[in-house]
Write a structure and sequence with these properties.
Elements: E1 2-5, E2 11-15, E3 18-22, E4 44-46, H1 52-55, H2 58-65, E5 68-72, H3 73-81, E6 87-90, E7 95-97, E8 101-107, E9 124-130, E10 133-137, E11 157-161, H4 170-180, E12 184-188, H5 200-209, E13 213-215, E14 222-224
Parallel strand pairs: 3-4, 4-5, 5-6, 10-11, 11-12, 12-13
Antiparallel strand pairs: 1-2, 1-14, 2-3, 7-8, 8-9, 9-10
């Protein structure tokens, strides 16, 4: 499975010709200025919550690709008002089998409102079974003991926020990795704004000392999971 990072919490997972795009926020992120949003053609878009730095390019990418959007029910309803009816609404604790694999929506501790002030429902994370691997996309979240519920999921990878201030920082992400029993981590949600800038070397050292494998791909870089 290939992961391509587009900055903030936006990334794409690709396997067997199917592309899953998460939290599309690119054109408004100066760090991602070299990414051509118009070239993105995912098959599915997964949205963790309604904040602008996670849905900034959602409507454009959906309309140019025709992708099915997987999201909380309230965001699916909001998309309908934007002329997008190809959305699959879910809620916390529910799971569904899609053509590419299974998605379970899990708890995240954060806030959620859409850019126009509409109700964004509850923030969420996802456990995705795709191409024989199980990946946890935590979304924007604090460290929460609910993560212990995932320790028996046999996760192959976890995508965790590490930027602090709005979400978990590196120290809490390390605790989260212990809670979910997963040693292979991709860090996201950092550096896009001054208050979430990190020292990558220090963060890497912390993860190494904790016995964890942390990947911090550059914007536009693809890695194999």
């Amino acid at each position: 499975m290939k992961l391509t990072y587009y900055g903030q919490s936006c990334l794409e997972l690709e396997a067997n010709g199917t592309k899953l795009l998460f939290d599309p926020f690119i054109s408004q992120n100066p760090l991602a200025k070299n990414i051509d949003v118009s070239a993105l053609k995912p098959d599915y878009i997964l949205v963790s919550h309604g904040h602008g730095d996670h849905v900034g390019d959602l409507t454009q990418v959906q309309k140019q690709s025709g992708a099915k959007v997987i999201c909380i029910a309230e965001i699916a309803g909001w998309l309908g008002k934007q002329g997008i009816d190809n959305a699959h609404g879910m809620n916390i604790g529910g799971a569904f089998n899609f053509e590419f694999g299974r998605v379970k929506m899990v708890n995240a501790v954060h806030s959620s409102a859409l850019p126009d002030g509409s109700n964004g429902g509850n923030p969420a994370g996802f456990v995705i079974t795709f191409n024989g691997q199980k990946v946890y996309f935590a979304g924007d979240t604090a460290l929460t003991y609910d993560m212990k519920l995932l320790e028996d999921e046999n996760l192959d990878w976890a995508i965790l926020p590490i930027g602090d201030n709005y979400t978990m920082g590196a120290d809490d992400a390390i605790k989260a990795a212990s809670f979910i029993n997963c040693k292979d981590i991709v860090g996201v949600h950092y550096d896009s704004f001054p208050v979430i800038e990190i020292n990558k070397d220090e963060v890497q050292e912390k993860f190494i000392k904790a016995g964890l494998n942390l990947k911090l791909p550059a914007i536009g870089e693809s890695i194999e999971l």
